[in-house]
């Protein structure tokens, strides 16, 4: 146990001597959060201003439906939606074609609606009002069949007003600020930088020619692997804590009561990335090209995982450790779904275990590394 501690301490000292470590683990991600969050904050805004909507209509037949709709249109007109009686069906349709109205409703024995490619929001509003009227009319017609004395309900529909429509906004992972999104994604990407630390664990030994002494020492090779593994993780754990604190203070990411669960999710990714880096170095027999391959691998994972631009929560994100960690953290933090933490933690630790066992068998088979 003491030998593992000494090897871990040695790895920490080597990391502290690397100035590039602080650049990539602290300055780089914070700068990206600030820049991307500032530039793309409007892309994450859910505030939508709805222009005033005009709907023209004509009553083409004197019947209960026409009277009911005329009364409904009068009462339903408000600040956002105005029902305007057209002079004729032709003028109503021309108003739609010219963009002066979102839709035209012709009322005979039924409703005929004419639109000209309205936006999704405008169409939803129009559908909502017309669906509300038809539901109300069917109900009134049923009442009359049961009690003919209530015929006046068709001429006096309940009043509709803008205040009758209430929007309740729930806190969810689909409605977060750009700073929050990129803070979550960048911390995941920084944990993925552990690949480089893992690659350099044994490479530093070779550069300083201490690898031979390490492996001829009276210790198990697994002890050397575990000690270097823990040493590479220690400083990145410190970076993880600092990044979470800074993102809370300056970028509005309130980790709150789920901070420990989220820390474990990120920590499991750190385990995976360091193990992956060590495995790349070991299985490539210390090939100098491994660092370049690791950098490309990180960027591919970052692209697929939505570190630079949102990729959603679908298949693309599930192809990247950064993606499945980002989605898990988002669901835990904003949807309060603790079960969402299970997938990234289990998968990360499972892959880590497989890599560590594989490295041990590989080094033991080669006798020397």
TrEMBL record:
<feature type="domain" description="ABC-2 type transporter transmembrane">
    <location>
        <begin position="19"/>
        <end position="361"/>
    </location>
</feature>
<dbReference type="GO" id="GO:0140359">
    <property type="term" value="F:ABC-type transporter activity"/>
</dbReference>
<protein>
    <submittedName>
        <fullName>ABC-2 type transport system permease protein</fullName>
    </submittedName>
</protein>
<keyword id="KW-0472">Membrane</keyword>
<feature type="transmembrane region" description="Helical">
    <location>
        <begin position="181"/>
        <end position="202"/>
    </location>
</feature>
<feature type="transmembrane region" description="Helical">
    <location>
        <begin position="223"/>
        <end position="246"/>
    </location>
</feature>
<feature type="transmembrane region" description="Helical">
    <location>
        <begin position="292"/>
        <end position="309"/>
    </location>
</feature>
<dbReference type="InterPro" id="IPR013525">
    <property type="entry name" value="ABC2_TM"/>
</dbReference>
<dbReference type="GO" id="GO:0016020">
    <property type="term" value="C:membrane"/>
</dbReference>
<dbReference type="InterPro" id="IPR052902">
    <property type="entry name" value="ABC-2_transporter"/>
</dbReference>
<feature type="transmembrane region" description="Helical">
    <location>
        <begin position="338"/>
        <end position="363"/>
    </location>
</feature>
<keyword id="KW-0812">Transmembrane</keyword>
<dbReference type="Pfam" id="PF12698">
    <property type="entry name" value="ABC2_membrane_3"/>
</dbReference>
<keyword id="KW-1133">Transmembrane helix</keyword>
<feature type="transmembrane region" description="Helical">
    <location>
        <begin position="258"/>
        <end position="280"/>
    </location>
</feature>
